[in-house]
Amino acid sequence: MIEKLVPDSLWQRVEPLLPPRPVRRSRYPGRLPVDDRAALAGIVFVLKTGISWRELPREVFGCSGVTCWRRLRAWTEAGVFDAVHKLLLDQLRALDRLDLDVAVVDGSHVRALKGGKPTGPSPVDRARLGSKHHVITDGNGIPLVVSVTGGNRHDSTQLIPLVEALPVIRGKRGRPRQRPRWLYGDRGYDYDHHRKTLRDKGIVPRIARKNTAHGSGLGKIRWVVERMFAWLHQFKRLRIRWERRADIHLGLMHLACVLICYRKLPTSL
């Protein structure tokens, strides 16, 4: 089970980026710490199945769900999954699996049944408490950057922060890539000051205009971000926000991005 959830090739990429463990005392060292790979497998299992942390079967993973949650908290605070995500993006670029000339932005609502911050009344879910997932993908729908806000935050408020958070992607000789040539978005991002800011950054905005007839043709490009949300929400722990702490929920989103990018690598690697 552990090897299936965390294959050897994935573990070889994650293990060097984990924070070092504290040195054990030579006298009265206490219990041995839980194996990191087993804890990561437990986190992935919760992410995929959506079960609560306390329901994680100890006999399968050799550790409790609470221990897995604590490792998730520590690794999230250390930026482990974000670092692995950037590493995989570099490798995908080296294999010509990324289309970095095109970027697509969008947002999606999820319910937040346990509250926490940031949350807010969702305008598309009868004002029920919820959060929003925001994402920018490349032209192939591979996630480049994600964020979480309250359910009542407008998509347009996150456009520039997402663009500024785009990672520097290496993997090839020459200058690394960070800014796309074109950015595609729906009518929710149609504001002149956003267009000006994007042009100042050297990005050509391809954003649908408000109060115009449908059929602009942008959907031929933007459909990849909708597919990415389908991939993201296949992880049942992300369909509904169960984590009260926003950083933990965002850490699970980064882990989901890691798994999505890992699937795009050739199996021979």
Characterise the protein shown here.
With 269 residues, the chain is of the alpha/beta class. Helix content is 40%, strand content 15%. It has eleven helices and seven strands. It has helices at 2-5, 8-14, 36-49, 58-61, 65-77, 80-94, 159-164, 192-200, 219-232, 236-239, 246-263, and strands at residues 102-112, 120-121, 129-138, 143-150, 182-185, 204-207, 240-241. Strands 1, 2, 3, 4, 5, 6 and 7 form a seven-stranded mixed beta sheet that branches. Helix 3 (36-49) crosses helix 5 and helix 6 (80-94) packs parallel to helix 11 (246-263). The chain starts with a helix and ends in a 6-residue tail after the last helix. The relative contact order is 0.16. The model has no long low-confidence stretch (mean pLDDT 90).
In short:
By secondary structure, this protein is of the alpha/beta class. It has helices at residues 2-5, 8-14, 36-49, 58-61, 65-77, 80-94, 159-164, 192-200, 219-232, 236-239, 246-263; strands at residues 102-112, 120-121, 129-138, 143-150, 182-185, 204-207, 240-241.
What descriptors fit this protein?
single chain, 269 residues, alpha/beta, seven-stranded mixed beta sheet, 15% strand, globular
Q: Estimate the helix proportion, in percent.
A: 40-55%
Count of DSSP-assigned helices: 11
Query: Helix-strand pattern, N to C?
Result: HHHHHHEEEEHEHEHHEH
Give the DSSP E fraction (strand runs of 2 or more residues): 15-25%
Number of strands: 7
**What is the end-to-end distance?**
21 Å
Structural class: alpha/beta
The main β sheet shows up as: 7 strands, mixed
Poorly predicted runs of 5 or more residues:
none
**Overall pLDDT level:** 90
